[in-house]
Amino acid sequence: MAFFSKLKDRLLKSSSRIEEGLDAIVEDGGEEIAAETVEQSVPASPEPEAEQLKSESPTEVTAPKPETAKPAAAPSPKPKKPGLIGRLTGRAPAAPVVKRVLDDEMLEQLEELLIASDMGVDTALRVTANIAEGRFGKRLSTQEIKTLLADEISRIMDSVAKPLPLYPQKPQVVLVVGVNGSGKTTTIGKLASQFKDAGKSVVIAAGDTFRAAAVEQLQVWGDRAGVPVLTAPEGSDPASLAYDSMTKAQELGADLLMIDTAGRLQNRADLMEELSKIVRVIRKKDETAPHNTLLVLDATTGQNALNQVETFQKLADVSGLVMTKLDGTAKGGVLVALADKFGLPIHAIGVGEKIDDLSPFDPQEFAKALTGLKDD
Prior knowledge:
With 376 residues, this protein is α/β, with parallel strands linked by helices.
């Protein structure tokens, strides 16, 4: 199963909330509109019946002869039958579609729905304003709004969908940061495995020297991918390990050195200073390093992810984002808010624990999955 097929399945919490919300908004004050005829499995009428219908059709050019003309039929309360062309081609009237006039009240309800999906106030206002442009006062169905919403989301995110850039420096140092429980260790393991499969030589440094479980988890991933994992005794200085790892990676001729760091809360000044120290020490070895600083974000934290980006950007000069756990939240819209506010590259997103549950970010597919828009 392709990754974004799984994404659509696993973003049910987000897409269901938006889809149900849109249905409720359109039905609140909407009305049924007769749809255009659509293909139905109605058998074509036999030729004699078609001839009879021709004589009854109001569009017939040749008037019926007086002696054979029939009086007009009285209006019937029964549902309207398919017309001549519809019956001959197997077409029948489609079920009525509920549409609602796009007015101020409807726009306000759309804004509230997007904000509840963690898209953020500013982004929600901008998206709804763009949807309303040229359409205010017109009737729209749920499907039409989904399409417009998906188009707006993908437009916002097109410019930030970028793979992790690879540089000629050896080793290319990738520093991975984030708060406790964001999925840093798992993300490093998955990325290392994917780069190894792509023919790159990778070394992992277990910089979370205060948590034995993190080191063990990285070693499991390293064994699985055939990637060496460099460690230090528990409680060692993470900055010293980072420095030594760069030396070792140079000796091995590695293409990539991925450095894990301890999870830290952005409001803990001491932990954040430790992160700054790691960056300073790395630059003593290579003034251009780290060449990438990935911030791993947990989608379930919602709007708090914006605060994390602001804080880590100041201390570690974040160059790109990875969003995990999109399958565990009804607020997947936070990724749209991040793209709109910061414009940082989104390298990958994750919707599970397996190796193929982390994939490069595709804005069009994400927008469809988030809005519950079906493929044509």
